Amino acid sequence: MVDKYLEKFEEIKNNHKEYMEKRNIKLRYASFKKGYNIGLGKKDLLSYEPEFRRKGEKILVKENKEDSWHELDSHNKGIFLGVASKLMSVKNPIPALHGAKIYEGLGVGNRASVKRRLLRAYEKNPCYGYDKEIKAFLKRNPESKEGKTLEHKFIPVLAGASVIVALFFLSPNLTGNAVGNLVKSDSNIIGAVLFVLGIAGLFISFRKR
Length: 209
Hints:
Layout: H1 4-36, H2 42-47, E1 51-55, E2 58-62, E3 70-71, H3 74-89, H4 93-105, H5 112-124, H6 131-140, H7 150-170, H8 181-208
Antiparallel strand pairs: 1-2, 2-3
């Protein structure tokens, strides 16, 4: 027979562990946001050239050539992502490429949004001296590596199914027989709602690609 005090102890310990895990997640997120919101001037942005490398699941970073390698924490990750985002908002391929390389160092250079912004900057202001570098970046981060998540796979399937079911409900020959006005009205409402949701889902899915 298990002692009730031992049971109570285990319950307290597990509750505390769960509380600390949630607290640490909140603290890491707060630290990340604080880093992301740090304001840097354009000159500082362009001269900010951190180096990254992988060690298993960990990301190591060296902010300057004189620095030693250290593990990336939430605060610094926020800073780097904030810098990369600001660089890529400039409609010029030089800072945009710089930002894209920071994203790459953080392991997210193959995101479609990163490549779209890089190509948009190049289209707005083509700098032909950077053709090879941009092409090399795109080759290092091919589309096939983006890896569609379950959400990306599920949304278009669900949206397409909603449209098909909506057409079924909106059909005037729903059962092949005469249907009462109330049933027709209900089926039309259901069909209209499903159709709108399906179209919205397809729109979101195509926009994310």
